[in-house]
Amino acid sequence: MNMIKLGVNVDHVATLRQARMTYEPDPVTAAGLADLGGADIITIHLREDRRHIQDRDLDLLRQTVFTKLNLEMATSQEIVDIAIRLKPEQITLVPEKRQEITTEGGLSVTSQKEVLADIIRKFKDNDIYVSLFIDPDRDQIMASGEVGAQAVELHTGNYANAKSEKQSVEMLEVLKEGVKIAQDAGLMVNAGHGLTYKNTGPIVECMDVEELHIGHSIVSRAIFVGIKRAVKEMKDIIYKHYLIKQNLRVPKV
């Protein structure tokens, strides 16, 4: 198994900027520093209400991200048109509610299969890779394959918010089963939401996924140590637990 790739979500840098409606801190600069820290992917969410990431940010990131740009978005026609124009390497379709602080759960694929199939077809016709952010639920996973998605990002929020070790272990088992179902269905599997420096290790050891998408925890750490170091620290955690999973010796620091 290859080591899991790290997608760094810089939305929260833009959230801080928009709190004062000014020009700093700049998520584009943050993305560049994240790249220097070892980020494999830059993830952003262009919301319909533009509460954090702005069109200007997306335009500049499309020009300056030379690894992989993953655009999270809802199914709004306006955002679909923007995505097709800019052609990020990957689209991740997510649910979106105006009143939520952050994305609260996975996309309901089963309830909007026709709409999603049409949008996914447009993206694939434009050579854009499509992932769906969903809960680790068999019906949602199978429906994701049926509508043409190439990947799913399993929502790790229930694991991240577990109140006890027992609950955490149970949620990990649910996620592991979701990975197996998705892989058997021919889907690439990513994961994300609520992951931190404390709870990412078990995900790496237990789940055979391609990418982890982490934002808030890295940006929070970056306030104290800077973006570059914060990303490197998360990459080090992923590497350490990858070695543990492979029964390889973890080098002493």
Automatic annotation (TrEMBL):
Give the active-site positions.
45, 72, 193
Reaction(s) the record says it catalyses: 3-amino-2-oxopropyl phosphate + 1-deoxy-D-xylulose 5-phosphate = pyridoxine 5'-phosphate + phosphate + 2 H2O + H(+)
Q: What keywords does the record list, in alphabetical order?
A: Cytoplasm, Pyridoxine biosynthesis, Transferase
Q: Which domain of life is it from?
A: Bacteria
Q: Chief location of this protein?
A: cytoplasm
Q: Please give the name of this protein.
A: Pyridoxine 5'-phosphate synthase
Query: Which residues are 1-deoxy-D-xylulose 5-phosphate-binding?
Result: 11-12, 47, 52, 102
- In what pathway does it function? Cofactor biosynthesis; pyridoxine 5'-phosphate biosynthesis; pyridoxine 5'-phosphate from D-erythrose 4-phosphate: step 5/5
Listed InterPro entries: Aldolase_TIM, PyrdxlP_synth_PdxJ, Pyridoxine-5'_phos_synth
State any GO CC term. Answer: cytosol
- Name any one Pfam family assigned in the record: PdxJ
Question: What family is this protein classified in?
Answer: Belongs to the PNP synthase family.
The function of this protein is: Catalyzes the complicated ring closure reaction between the two acyclic compounds 1-deoxy-D-xylulose-5-phosphate (DXP) and 3-amino-2-oxopropyl phosphate (1-amino-acetone-3-phosphate or AAP) to form pyridoxine 5'-phosphate (PNP) and inorganic phosphate.
Enzyme Commission number(s): 2.6.99.2
Q: Is the keyword Repeat in the record?
A: no
For the site Transition state stabilizer, which positions are given?
A: 153
The yes or no answer to whether the keyword Flavoprotein is present is no
Q: Give the matching SUPFAM superfamilies.
A: Pyridoxine 5'-phosphate synthase
Gene Ontology terms, MF aspect: pyridoxine 5'-phosphate synthase activity
Q: Oligomeric state and partners?
A: Homooctamer; tetramer of dimers.
Task: Tell me which residues bind 3-amino-2-oxopropyl phosphate.
Answer: 9, 20, 194, 215-216
Which GO BP terms apply? Answer: pyridoxine biosynthetic process
Location relative to the cell: Cytoplasm
